[in-house]
Amino acid sequence: MVDNIRMQVTNSLSNSISENQRLGQLQDPQERQSIINKQISIQIKSLGLDEPWYSPKKIINSLLQIITLNLGNSRFFTTHDGSSSVNELIIEKVPNTILLFTSSSITVVAIGIVIGSYLAKMEGKFSDQLIAGLASASQSVPPWWFSMIMIVLFSFLLQIFPARSTPLISPDTPGYFIDLLYHMTLPFITMVIIGFASSVYYVKYIVLRIIDEDYIKTLGIIGLPSRKILLKHALKNAGPQLTTMLGLGLTATLGGSILIEEIFDWPGMGNLFYNAVIQNDSPLIIGLVYFFTLLYLLTRLLLDLTLSLLDPRISTGDE
Amino acid sequence: MLTSKMKLRLKNYKGGVLGFVLLLFLIGITIYTVFYIPAKERSEWNNPFYWIDYPKNAAPAWVNYFLMPFNQQLPEHKVYSKEEAVISSYAETDFKVNNLTFLYEYVYGQFPSAFSIPFSLEIGEISPAVEISVKRPDGLTFDLYYNSLDPIPSVQNEVGAQLSDGDTHPYEISQRLFSSSKEVIDTLMKYTNLFNFSLSDLPSEKIIFSETNSNIPLKGTYQFVFTTYSFDNDTILKDINLIIEGKVFGLLGTDEFRRDISFGIMIGTPVALLIGVAVASSSTTIGLFYGLIAGYKGGKTGTFMVIMIDIFLSIPTMVLFIILSLNFGRSLLFLIGLFVLFGWPGVALINRTFSVQIKNYPYVEASKLMGESDFKVVLRHIIPQLIPFTLANFALSVPAAILAESALSFLGFGDPSFPTWGQMLQDAHFSSAEILGYWWWILPPGLMISMTSMAFILIGRSLEHRAKLSKKQ
Q1: Which chain A residue shows the shortest CA-CA distance from B434?
Q2: Which Pfam families does the record associate with it (chain B) (predicted)?
Q3: Domain span holding position B417
Q4: Mutation choice for A interface testing from B23, B310, B318, B447 by most A CBs within 10 A
């Protein structure tokens, strides 16, 4: 990939240099080429591209570029407006990824809380086994394969949803957002089906453990209705654990988003990343890896902060 | 008689037993593949010439059982060899005619997807002429192909020409006539006036097997006649096949590249198990010892080691896997190394928690007070306690490796010399199989991945249930 970067620098430099007016006056093409080559070698030296990858100059250079979000231009991809800047490309795609994955993760957790706490109260034997079985199954089924099956089912056999989730109309037209939501339905349903069983299973497990605690039992003895205990006291105390579950679910889907977005052709970051990898568009790959990591770490940070808000015991810092 | 306690235990094992049965099934496939399919055949998966006699995009053969009530059975794949043909020959004044007739019983409700006739001839100095025609059940006869064989068109003939520089003739000519070839379609256009509908844009098999009034299949016995007109005695028909490509084939059908899917499923099994077991055994071993040292040592070393684990656990692995595979090649060994590198920290964290707990048990402290060395304490008291958990961890980290490998293969970073289920799904996705509805290409590989993961998860869960730390020893 380093060679790709060098190639790109060489290309962009030779373009900008040959556009120079003064060079155009030179008649001899060989002389002109030698000037261009000299300029390129000076630039390569100043950027440290001729040095091995571990040279501090090169590392500091690229680090500075990345920190200032100067991620360069993509070689093959453009935004809807025609800009090829990596930043703008990513900014165009990020909302779609967040829209799909956040909404489905929240739905999964919401379903988990509703059904999980209901099942914790009921303690039916059959439903317990069913949920445990479904949870094991959803962990062993590759989500991307399940997405393919869903496309066969809903796009080929039933023909309800489109197989390709990128809307055909341009983002400027008024009905775009509604069309986008319609195209989002199939990936959304798929991700909810994949996630809900383990979510229900974990919520049930968490709530069952809390219901067993003495203070909840005391509330029951006092005479509070069991529904109120569950909603007001048990779920409140399960808050930190449920948030952890949501956060871990979000971070887990981030990596998997590459495959799922590629299969559904959802216009998000994962799909862009996959296409960049296929086309070997190195500036875009580097930029997207950076953004993925950033988003991942940000989610984890947010998770930790929310946890300390929900459970003051965590924020003291002592072990 | 089962006591209630035994019943309870059996219930806990039910999942484990199911997992074990699944595992035995997979091991059975592995043994069959390793011992009965030679390595040479296994490496032919990506070789298109090996699969040329197979049908394209054929559904599994058992689909016909479901279509039987609707009388819409799909044509089966038929390969006729030279021995099945009826041979008749006669001599004219200056040439000899040699007829081979294949009888094809056609009883299906749909057209076959194609046919091809590969033949090879040994010819002398004068090249013979070849004619292929088909006699239909309604009495019509269509000529499909007529050609006087040119002695030097293809590579084989050039080799033959070199050999025959002296007086040693026979050349050998191998050709393959496809139903989609231009010659066949052009010759069929002669018969336009026999049909009541337009023949333009129709593939040749839909003309040959069609009724004349409307474009529906005409059932009955078809005679494919292969005729050679030879002008000397040296012309010998070496080999000929008639291949009617069906729309159903075998146990699991075929894919876009004519490959038998059941074959791919079988040769994918040992690779998946190898990856899973290799990664899981390495990462659980590393994780066991790392976690043990981190927990037992404690203090600054322990904290540092835990920080290392945290760093590894806070990396978005899928993105990193893709980047690393992109840069460092696509070998199986590299993939295994990659999964081990990011597989051990999770196991290490669990083992650390346990070893911190065990360290404070009275008998461990007692043996330390008695002056036993750290090494001996770990070996005699801590490791034996951790073994059940390690076994469970082993079983639970197999699916992670298998799923990761299939995901990477799906993205195109698999080792191309070892066909895997993930690669099959990648091919399917690239050929838009899910949009075209080739479910037989998508379902089996994914089901195998799920089944393998499921087997190990079930075994791991039931092992986890059994494992318990004991405070006494």
Answers
A1: A152
A2: BPD_transp_1 (PF00528)
A3: 1-44+260-472
A4: B318
